[in-house]
Amino acid sequence: MSSNEALDYIRAHPEGILQSDLWKALNIDSRKCSRIVAKLLKESYITREVESSDGIRTYRIHYTEATRSGRFRSLLAVDVFEPCAGCIEECTPEHCAKLSEWIFAIVMGLDGDAAMENA
Amino acid sequence: MAAVEEIIHRAYLNKLVGEEGLRIVECIPGEEITDERLAELTGISLNTVRRTLYLLYEHRLAVYRRKRDPDSGWLTYLWQLCPENFDKALQSETKRLLRKLDERLAYEKENIFYACTEGCARFVFDEASEANFVCPFCQGSLEYMENSKVVETIERQMVDLKACL
Fold this sequence. Notes:
The structure holds two protein chains of two kinds. Chain A is α+β, with helices and mostly antiparallel strands.
């Protein structure tokens, strides 16, 4: 489960979603969910406010429509902006070291997420 | 001063013009400003300021207007940011990246890869075979490398990128 998948799920719920429901829906544990939520909050993709559900304090999470950058977030994978922007080198996507590095970093990032899930 | 608040815009500018360039951008006010004044405000060399402004201009993120001094006849360039063009610029970067990833995906799907066990490099089957499966850099052995995760990642990234358009 990556933060992108979680964000897609949150975005699909314009009325907002309770954090206590989010981790169940995503089939992850609450600690993993907290880490993902913290990351998305830090990157301003979501906002959240305290809400009580059945007497239990939780948060309602909303996708930040105003954050237009969310639309292009795929250009910024694993905190690295895609390597082709501003590149003036001769382009051979098959052998480009910078493109390879970016792709492999995403692969490693996904592996890292999988490892966290299995932990 | 124009604070660049959007994370993706900051990351994009950082990629285009670097950290110094980003500092320059943040000192560009809402109204027009000369390159000399920007150099004074930021303490960054005039060459770097000009290079940054021209890079922004190339990506339609800044515009300039020329003004001739009536006394000296010198031309002054007055610069202004175009933050409203960020989305267009990012859209065009997305399309460009999609074309590159499409080519890369075909290459990943069409080839079988062998990688140096010491991590030097990755080779397609023909190259590895010609080298007798010995790394030309460290003489270590070349072993089959599964690339299905690479293929999946590129495909997934392309789906996400297409959703941006």
